[in-house]
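REQUEST ID: PR-0412
SUBMITTED BY: lab tech R.K.
PRIORITY: routine
TASK: structure prediction, single protein chain
INPUT:
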Amino acid sequence: MGGYGLDALLAYLAGSIPFGLVLTRLAGVGDIRAIGSGNIGATNVLRTGKKGLAAATLLLDAGKGAAAVLIARRFGAEMAALAAVAVVVGHIFPVWLRFRGGKGVATAGGAVLAYLWPVGLAAGATWIAVALLTRYSSLAAIIACALAPVYALLFAHTVLPTATVLVLALLVLLRHQANMRRLLRGEESRIVLGKAE
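STATUS: complete
OUTPUT:
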């Protein structure tokens, strides 16, 4: 296996680690996939009422995205870009969970922050602002992802970073199609500490 193939495989496997599922099971909460939206991410973990677990899930999911990029960056910009995409694909389609994973928001955020930090900060600030204003985690993610390629155009000076951020944004947006439909119907759950509204 060549360097690029190994890079992609390792990043994918790192992304496949389902921290939300592991943490909730260790805490005795049960299978997070049977709670709330059924998603393995931090927002659904928050619906268990375990704020600490939700925060840990967020940090670990973002951390694996950042770690994959930072390690790959030592071998060049193209390796870092490939790792960023592969780690998010791993989170969304984890081999351990029959390719049914999370939405990729935190992992993509961590990857972008490590890959192109001004874009990561801008997208993160966008997510926080929209989430605070609307209390819709999904809407915040959708808007942040939609604007991330625009931020990349402003901050990046070459094609590769912009293209990489665009691919990451599209991956996350594709996983939010059901959320988009629920938002349009007014049926989407809001962020509520301890339970879904």
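NOTES: The longest helix spans residues 51-73.
REVIEWED BY: pending
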